[in-house]
Amino acid sequence: MVIVGAGPAGAALALLLARQGVPLTLVEASPTSARQFRGEALMPSGLAALAAMGLLPLPETIAQRPLAGWAFWANGQQLFQVAEPMGSLRPCTLVDQEALLRWLLDDVRRLSGAKVLTGRPVVAPMLSDGRVVGVELADGTQVSGELVVACDGRSSRLRQKAGIELTRIGSPMEVRWFRLLAAAADPVADWLKGQFVTILGGGDSFALYASVYGGVQLGWVQDSTATVPSSAADWRERWAQASPERLASLLRACPLQAIEGPMLLPVKVGRLERWWQPGLLLLGDAAHPMSPVRAQGINMALRDALVAARQLLPVLGQGNPAALDQVLAGISAERLLEIRPIQASQARELARADLLRHNGWLRQLLAASTGWSSPLLARRWQADQALLRQGWGTLELTIPNDAMMG
Ligand SMILES: Cc1cc2nc3c(=O)[nH]c(=O)nc-3n(C[C@H](O)[C@H](O)[C@H](O)COP(=O)(O)OP(=O)(O)OC[C@H]3O[C@@H](n4cnc5c(N)ncnc54)[C@H](O)[C@@H]3O)c2cc1C
Predict the structure, then answer these.
(1) Could you tell me if the CB of 265 is within 6 A of ligand 1?
(2) The model's pTM
(3) CA separation (Å) from 75 to 63, 197, 321?
């Protein structure tokens, strides 16, 4: 079989299948796992997936740090804060995703029957009698297999080439990612106290946390029609104006040359209602590009891989395309049970944040009433997080011991 894309979905799926002796080729466009910006937050749901794969604890060579908690500020006042692990088995944990992926790929490479091709973009699926039977690479190489799994991310080329339309959810928004480099940004990191902090003020909204890569990662959210500052100095001043006094002065003291970015991430949230065609399965962002709200993408990609591996193992290698396609439909149906409510929950969180961002009067009211409203807000927020932290509870995450290739 062929897996396209070595992000969390593709790398985890390749490892799970190769461990069981499935012959496969993992094809990745990029020569390395390095990216300018990467997500770092693993929710308890993603950590549970890694545990079910037998990958916890992660080796110490992969930088990781449990998050201390979550804090929300509006108009310079802390509305509330909630400490991790919020009743979960494991706290939300920041993990060096690049190192995690490198580690997974190294494991895949060590397994016999698994081939990893990096720096080799796939350009199109190969078709025979209406069935996907492999992929064609940019250099003209053809790689065939009984199944192609597209894990090629939110702009999935295979999805486009297969003519599969994504159903869009919600209105477009933009996130601009910045990195405040270590040393210069250490005072800001100290102020954050290991928390994921969301700041609302003056119609702006951004979130920041001390990154496992060092320094501070900052994501600025806005409607895609809004105008943005044009220089690092203007950006820095805009953050400072929305921030509480102490953070504002620390941000203003951060030298401009220590500000990297912005990297623009146009957020188009959506999903497929059917994740497969004969001989083709789509997983991860390729099947359901997630909103950035409460860091779900890596977590859902890992859980997709686990469910796909569990369902595929009994049918791969049987030479029975009809049975294989039936399993693809089953994977799609099982994963939609989780993805639909998670995306709905993200949309509710976003709507609340948008309301606060756009409504100065409401922000003022909340900021002025923190004396009595903080505990209520914290309790209410925490109650709304269950699904985004734990995932859909009834999912079977373990691979049965007797799962074998047919
Ligand atoms: C700045 C940023 C911050 C984020 N923060 C978080 C976070 O904190 N927590 C979280 O859970 N999620 C986060 N996300 C989202 C998360 O990174 C994604 O949802 C997740 O990586 C999806 O995994 P995937 O395997 O489906 O796709 P991807 O990780 O996108 O991997 C797809 C892979 O396919 C490869 N590829 C693409 N096209 C081809 C082709 N034609 N041929 C071969 N290979 C191809 C790509 O090079 C890539 O390696 C963040 C995303 C960004 C950009």
Answers:
(1) yes
(2) 0.95
(3) 34, 14, 59
